[in-house]
Specification:
By secondary structure, the chain is an alpha/beta fold. It has a domain of about 250 residues: Amidase signature (AS) enzymes, CATH 3.90.1300.10. The two termini are about 20 Å apart. β4 and β5 form a beta hairpin. An eleven-stranded mixed β-sheet has the order 1-3-2-6-8-7-12-13-11-9-10, with helices on both faces. It is globular. Helix content is about 40%, strand content about 15%. α2 packs antiparallel against α3.
Length: about 475
């Protein structure tokens, strides 16, 4: 039998229900893996965790007691006793939350995010908070104020970002599952690089209350797991309308769709081969397509989505603008790092200059620029119009197909420090940002690889509210694996 920490959530839930193992057993197995070969001053060898909670065994003991007292032995709560990792921008009452930034170092959350409330009600155990790109701005978890997270499959490479710590923790069996947040691929990117499943739900399907905002109109909390079934379980636990989040939607907002087993491939994919590794990613993409055809799916090649071409530029203009606005609250006065200067303006400059890292400062400056009086119409207004056009094109496409298939990332994980030019890292988001622009749900599924190959993920995007299609097709891709 696999080590307990190597079980999927569904496998562990079955064993807990059968009384074969306890939550304490699971937690101890995860903590043992976290502490294996860890360097001095770090929680684990990969720098996946920023903090491992000291009360995890107590949480597990209480979970076991709850199960023992349950007439059904917890059958109605499959997450009861399951150890999860939580990205460091999701609030947990009484625990530190820093968004991997020095400006929030030591800050303690005063309330639970809605997703945390739901997981607590389901009986999940919180192992700790995971590393990330500072304020969820980046694509590799190299922008953390506390050092980069390393890829479990090759520790010289990045884990992806911005939820790199969560993805690495799951891939390295330091947790059975995790939560991340996805702004432009921040769940799907590290899922692809680390060889796990990563889901970005429909915008509004999961409450953002208690998520530290980066780009409010893009951000969405989503699960990182070992299997599609686990992602489905976590999603169904945390989803739902929340009056604390004005952007959340009710489940009945989108009508249920009938599956047609039709998969589309965007036309631009063939025209933009220079964007991705044809030999590696391209080969896996073709193999995945052939095997899905063998499973009865019909492919619609070269579906025309003309607004995909300017999508990346539109995404980053809106990203910079909203970052500039959202991070204005971190001023060194109300909370977080506060450094004193010779004047109030000097206080702001010192606190923000030393508290924010270079990528955050870059985006704040660019966002202020595109929102300025002379450039708002030239940049921001055009980006918003391009976003709306892309959304309409996706709506029309999903009238005829169930999902759109693309690679998740153009390459496998790059080496730490390789992409020193920020533009080259921005370009790597080409396949993931459209789903954030349009609000559609998307999932990254790891595909079959040889022992010496780095993980590669394939991305499925579906119509608004149709996560069911992602899970159905995703499970067929898993069969390929």
């Amino acid at each position: 039998m696999n080590k307990l920490n190597e079980l999927s959530i569904t496998e562990a839930a079955q064993k807990l229900q059968a009384g074969e193992i306890t939550a304490v057993d699971l937690v101890r197995a995860c903590v043992a893996e976290i502490e294996r070969e860890k360097p001095v001053g770090k929680c684990d060898r990969l720098n996946a965790y920023l903090e491992v909670f000291t009360d995890v065994e107590e949480q597990a003991r209480l979970s076991d007691e709850r199960r023992a007292l349950s007439p059904t032995k917890g059958k109605e709560s499959p997450l009861l006793g399951i150890p999860l990792a939580i990205k460091d921008n999701i609030l947990m009452e009484g625990r530190k939350v820093s968004a991997a930034s020095k400006i929030l170092e030591g800050y303690v959350a005063t309330y639970d995010a809605t997703v945390i409330k739901k997981l607590k009600a389901a009986g999940a155990i919180f192992l700790g908070r995971t590393n990330m790109d500072e304020f969820a701005l980046g694509g590799s978890t190299e922008n953390s104020a506390f050092g980069p997270t390393r890829n479990p499959h090759d520790e010289t490479r990045v884990a992806g970002g911005t939820s790199g710590g969560s993805a690495a923790a799951v891939a390295a069996h330091m947790a059975l599952g995790a939560l991340g947040s996805d702004t432009g691929g921040s769940v799907r990117n590290p899922a692809s690089f680390c060889g796990v499943v990563g889901l970005k739900p429909t915008y509004g399907a999961v409450s953002r209350s208690g998520l530290i905002a980066a780009v409010s109109s893009f951000d969405q909390i989503g699960p990182l797991t070992k299997t599609v079934a686990d992602a489905e379980l976590l999603f169904n636990t945390i989803r739902g309308h929340d009056p604390l989040d004005s952007t959340s939607v009710r489940e009945e907002t989108y009508h249920k769709r009938n599956a047609t087993k039709k998969i589309a491939v965007p036309k631009i994919l063939n025209a933009s081969r220079e964007l991705f590794d044809v030999e590696g990613v391209g080969k896996k993409f073709k193999e995945t397509g052939r095997m899905l055809v063998e499973r009865g799916y019909k492919f619609i090649p070269d579906i025309d989505l003309p607004s995909l071409e300017p999508a990346l530029a539109a995404y980053y203009i809106i990203n910079f603008a909203e970052v500039s606005s959202n991070l204005a609250r971190f001023d060194g006065v109300r909370y977080g790092l506060s450094l004193k200067g010779n004047s109030l303006l000097d206080d702001y400059a010192k606190s923000r200059g030393e508290g924010f890292g270079p990528e955050v400062r870059r985006r704040i400056m660019l966002g202020t620029y595109v929102l300025s009086a002379g450039y708002y119409d030239a940049y921001y207004a055009k980006a918003v119009a391009a976003r709306e056009q892309l959304r309409r094109e996706y709506e029309k496409a999903f009238e005829d197909v169930d999902v759109i298939l693309t690679p998740t990332m153009p390459t496998s994980a790059w080496t730490i420090g390789e992409k020193s030019d920020p533009l080259s890292m921005y370009l790597a988001d080409a396949f993931t940002v459209p789903a954030n622009l349009t609000g559609n749900p998307a999932i990254s599924i790891p595909v079959k690889r040889e022992r010496n190959e780095l993980p590669i993920g394939m991305q499925l995007t579906a119509a608004h509210g149709d996560e069911a299609a992602l899970f159905t097709v995703g499970k067929d891709i898993e069969v390929v694996e």
